[in-house]
Amino acid sequence: MESTDLYYPKELSWLAFNERVLQEAADKNNPAVERIRFLGIYSNNLDEFFRVRVSDVKRQIIIAQNDGNELEAQHQRKLLEQIQQKVMALSKKFDTIHKDVVKALARYNIYILQKHELTDYQREWVRNYFINKVLRHIAPILIDKKTDLLSRLNGNAVYLYVALRREGRSPRFAAVQVPTGEVPRFFLIPPQRSRKNKHIILLDDMIQLSMEDIFRGFVKFDTLESYSFKMTRDAEYSINDEIDESYVEKMSESMKQRLIAEPVRVIHDQDMPEDMVEDLQKRLKVTKLDTLHSAGHYRNFKDFIGFPNPGREYLEHPPLPAIDTKDFSAYNTVFDAISDHDILLYYPYHRFLHFTEFVRQAAFDPNVKSIRINIYRVASHSRIISSLIDAVDNGKKVTVIVELRARFDEEANIEWSKRMTDAGIRVVLGVPSLKIHSKLCIVSREERGKLMHYAHFGTGNFNEKTAKIYTDFSLFTKNQELAEEGNAVFDLISNPYRRYKFQHLQISPLNARTKIQSLIRQEIQYLKEGHKAGITFKINNLVDNELIDDLYRASQAGVKIRGIVRGMCSLRPGIKGLSENIKIISVVDRFLEHPRVMIFNGGGNRKVYISSADWMMRNMDNRIEVGAPVYDDALQQRIVDIMEIQFRDTMKAREIDKEQVNQYVRRGNRKKLRSQEEIYDYLKQLEEKK
């Protein structure tokens, strides 16, 4: 086997993941409104894929060409061609599924109307609404020979390309941004008679219906026509090395660079006339390395994530009320609870309020002396940051590590940094060469004349919003050895050139890779010695070739390996003589699977870890990540039980095979089991036994 055959290309694997999202939109067992929202998730994912992954492939081609490495350039061009072919195939599936979902909504009397489908009453209502509520937000770009359209477009927005035509003259072109930041994307048209039918029109169609009102009196035209398009920019940025420029200023400048970055994809309405397509392509400087293609009527489908439900409750997933665990609620304070025993929460099944209470109580508890926390992504209205500001007001020493380079959250994190600094919080802007991705919080509290540390280790961000839709583990512990090492991570960030030793924690980039590799090799040794051996893991992405090679070696030695990988997976399971002992599944359902978990049989002495790190080179070598051992036997068993439930999933689990064809796990004679719902029932039953 060629060495390149050992690893499935990560970019194609990412598209295979997004195809699983598209499968959820196609699944008629999902409620109709949820299906159209999955189309929005797919679209949002694809935008990020082009902004990040495709941009990188394009850069690799340019770099290889500049270096004279034609073999590498040819390899990357072939990969880009495979990506474009797969995207086109998925785009066709998307359009078919979209039509099917629209029909499904219509069966429940919910109609998404295009402009030509409106009644006279509806047209009048739409036009009046446009003039009174929307027109004020419209500022068209009138295009002439001097117009640099590329620099004026927002890569996150959808536009309408307009041709203003006069007989005997060349058309005048214009671009109109659909102002989804100022007004909603979806409008429920008030009924004229029956309230049974619900009619929805998109902002795009509302603007197109009233397009003449925008240009009349400013531009002469006999006829006009408009079609949607969207441009996706390269999301990469560079930071210059000016010594007199602060880190924040560098990041702010990079945001400006992103706004004028080159496009990597232009997608337009399939009905757009050829002369308009050619003009758009020329003005946006689309090259052979970029993706230009047509698709259905609507662009920026990501807004459909928030598609409203004007109908019955059963058109959405039934709510799963978050569990209020007695592990906290049975105690007077969070500190009493954690002092009594380690606590493990699993969001969104458990309430994220338990963590926000941890920070809130620390903010006013007279015995708390300091709070240290690192922030990667937080909610737009963060109760956590409000509590940290309260803590400063109450005389606590508060240190917040802010990662300014959290992709697509840079601007928000810069603003949070300024606000916290103004409030008196010590804000540390991380290590310039390393992203800080750990999910760590340490509260130090004086108890009986001694400073005791309470630690939180997690797999997910401190974000109240995503904690409702991402599955993630949170471990609260008063184990002083773990907490002291957690404190050392903060010291490492502030003093990255000092040496630190970590006996318990897996810290990237210091020891995480070597510790994981050592644990894998130990399983091989245990098996050789006749002891129990096995590896079980759950991560978002598995694309680190070095760790994959270690798993291959363990498989060849006979170690049974099971994995749950939500996204990219370069490992190719089921290859005889290489990976026949490796089984990997992927679960895509209503909640986004986000935890990182490692379970090693350990010759009968089981070892369980939770971590912030995926098995990617960037997470192992170029970020500060924290993996923590779970020492409590009952909490270990809880994690094992949750993993076993997912491996028994017969409804939402797909088998990741060597070609990643996304076949659902075969159910056979087994009963239907949807692991995300089964886990909720499992955790509720545990709570009832307390």
UniProtKB/TrEMBL annotation:
- Provide the residue positions that the database annotates as binding ATP: N45, Y470, R566, H594
InterPro entries from the entry?
Answer: PP_kinase, PP_kinase_C_1, PP_kinase_middle, PP_kinase_middle_dom_sf, PPK_C_dom2, PPK_N_dom, PPK_N_dom_sf
Polyphosphate kinase middle domain segment(s): 122-307
What's noted about post-translational modification? An intermediate of this reaction is the autophosphorylated ppk in which a phosphate is covalently linked to a histidine residue through a N-P bond.
Q: Which reaction does it catalyse?
A: [phosphate](n) + ATP = [phosphate](n+1) + ADP
One Pfam family in the UniProt entry: PP_kinase_C_1
Q: Where is the active site?
A: H437
A single cellular component GO annotation: polyphosphate kinase complex
Q: Which Gene Ontology BP terms does the record give?
A: polyphosphate biosynthetic process
The record's keywords, sorted A to Z, are:
ATP-binding, Kinase, Magnesium, Metal-binding, Nucleotide-binding, Phosphoprotein, Transferase
Query: Cofactors per UniProt?
Result: Mg(2+)
Q: What does this protein do?
A: Catalyzes the reversible transfer of the terminal phosphate of ATP to form a long-chain polyphosphate (polyP).
Query: Family per UniProt?
Result: Belongs to the polyphosphate kinase 1 (PPK1) family.
Name this protein carries in UniProt: Polyphosphate kinase
